[in-house]
Automatic annotation (TrEMBL), chains A, B:
Protein name in UniProt: Nicotinate phosphoribosyltransferase
Ranges for domain Quinolinate phosphoribosyl transferase C-terminal: 134-304
Catalytic activity: 5-phospho-alpha-D-ribose 1-diphosphate + nicotinate + ATP + H2O = nicotinate beta-D-ribonucleotide + ADP + phosphate + diphosphate
Enzyme class: ligase
Amino acid sequence: MTIALLTDHYELTMLRAALQDGTADRRCVFEVFARRLPTGRRYGVVAGTGRLMDLVRDFRFPEEEVAHLRERGVVDDETAAWLSSYRFRGDIDGYAEGELYFPGSPILTVSGTFAECVILETLVLSVLNHDCAIAAAAARMVTAARGRPVIEMGSRRTHEEAAVASARASYLAGFEYTSNLAAGYRYGIPTAGTAAHAFTLLHDDEPAAFASQVAALGKQTTLLVDTYDISQGIRNAIAVAGPELRAIRLDSGDLSVLAQQSRELLNSLGATDTKIIVSGDLDEHAIAALAAEPVDMYGAGTAVVVGSGAPTAGLVYKLVEVEGRPVVKRSENKATVGGRKTAIRRHKPTGTAIEEIVVSQGVPDHRLGDRLLQHSYVVAGEPVALPTLEESRAHLRACLISIPWEGLKLSAGDPAVPVTVVPAV
Amino acid sequence: MTIALLTDHYELTMLRAALQDGTADRRCVFEVFARRLPTGRRYGVVAGTGRLMDLVRDFRFPEEEVAHLRERGVVDDETAAWLSSYRFRGDIDGYAEGELYFPGSPILTVSGTFAECVILETLVLSVLNHDCAIAAAAARMVTAARGRPVIEMGSRRTHEEAAVASARASYLAGFEYTSNLAAGYRYGIPTAGTAAHAFTLLHDDEPAAFASQVAALGKQTTLLVDTYDISQGIRNAIAVAGPELRAIRLDSGDLSVLAQQSRELLNSLGATDTKIIVSGDLDEHAIAALAAEPVDMYGAGTAVVVGSGAPTAGLVYKLVEVEGRPVVKRSENKATVGGRKTAIRRHKPTGTAIEEIVVSQGVPDHRLGDRLLQHSYVVAGEPVALPTLEESRAHLRACLISIPWEGLKLSAGDPAVPVTVVPAV
């Protein structure tokens, strides 16, 4: 619960001072963007906006929480009264979930009074910084897997609720399954999983464990064969389940060598249709390195839930316009441009994206092949119906096809699509 | 809610097979430990156990969630019935929150039937892997700060609920404040914060913003002086608030140079008691580099909530004993030892820790200066009263004093205290 307290203290002290001095009602525009991509990345992936809109809709200050803030001296009586009647009545526009972004892309724009917008800062950034980081890492893994399915199994390596959001973000990015049951329950994402080493260790021997699993789950299951000796594990698996066994899983060792040996052994046992699933500290580079091996599915855990080296997207939430006037912090990078932005992505006739044009307080020239990147999320406080997670997933797939091919390389390089930000005239 | 679904699919398929084959009731012991510390680290910090015990107490499968699992085919009728009546009735023992750990330390031991223990795996690991990672990073920052207070302000850079847990873990590690209001509400942690650049930009000019803030919050506030020109910002701050101003904050630029210049300017304006707070991408190394500068408080954000290079603690939950018999996955590191462990830490008469002794299925010789490291968390399903967060915080402070001095170095090195694991006879 406590959605409204997922907020930084300073937002309420700013609110308090602004209510007192009369600036709280000034019309403001806040913008979410990244100054740069994480080291080595060529694109970012917008993720979490669907989750965020549910949270914004429910962002209210219950009586008990207001009383707590009042007692602790965080707010005074006037601010407490204001919070008690708060709901967001402004507008939110932004890039679609599953859209790509680059440095300077205005991925979310929140407009309304200063007061109603400023107190959403932390929630907006927490959701987007987390989910975008996971989705970008996951998208690279999907590219590296070259069409082979990937299952997300990293829940245990991240905060228990971040795990659910990670499952959602990696499914958006093209993963096929998650191990996380809450993600299945909340978002309808397909879940998968069969057994851990503990299940084998629990039994008197490996054949007993395999027999039990097959009896309970059928031959369309995956047997984990590396608890003791892998070759013997595979022989035991086929002896118990027969060549109709759906899959074996390898979770340790040199997966490249083991996948080859396992394939040969399975084939020699007649189990030519039995799949090989590999897991164990796989990131996009490890997945890419297994491209030539007889692997049928990848399990990715730690690397995806920690963003594979970039655990946060580095997005910021900046005030860019007050009462129609562009504002900008002067000590920043000179390139920062104030004002509400409108963004389009320009494409070649072939469909390849070539440039993103972001115009402050205006609208870019619209040519054939241009695509408007911003959509309404909330209008005058009312949520707009959003695409489904499946639709967002398809959108990302299409976006990744649209960027120049070198944008999909795993190596470090420039952003796949350059962004030109045009200041207000 | 949905605590019980913060679980991996395979835990329920293992449960299903074990219920069917009769092994579900075998008495088991699962152990949480780290095979290694993150690169560069000399100790780990146990954090999150208090939070975990609340979740374990409430770990139940509501009817609607069981129905969902049944419909999706994750469980059969027998397993569904078992889940509906589930509550943990076993024992949990472990290291105190705030205790240090090293590779091989059995930081948590969960005992009971296979069925009741196996389904806690993901929840246990999610909480501990996250909170331990944050606490370890935060503890290094506190060491680097050499007694100067540190405020945690990283909520926006991590998942919204991970933010609350991060605030708790960094307070445990010795931070003085957090920006996160939910952490104040749930855990009683002191919160702090005053204003962002947006507050200055909202106003017609900087003096107007400062005057508003001082009018609302008094002179015991912190003015953010780097929105435009820092020197002018400091002059404006003192002109508005007088030399009684509590503090200024610098959030950008070369903090080393700026802190010196700001101190000189403040002194020249008679504001010799006005503090200087610095923030902006500070990690333990950046904090250490500011040791000689006139800085009074540090704000740490991104680095602490992403574990400063180690976003997950790498803890595992392994079955180590079945019906009194030690078990171990053979293909692992030979050093892995099965069986329930008992751990002590041995100290010199001066109080310095010199060794941790971990004995499988036995009790270490107890000498003068030895300290038993494990305590009861849950006995036969009943939670044991835990230390308060303040007590755990004091415990960590004492533990950090007890390790050899080189254990506190920020550079890479061996674990501060060696662990000897003695197999069962």
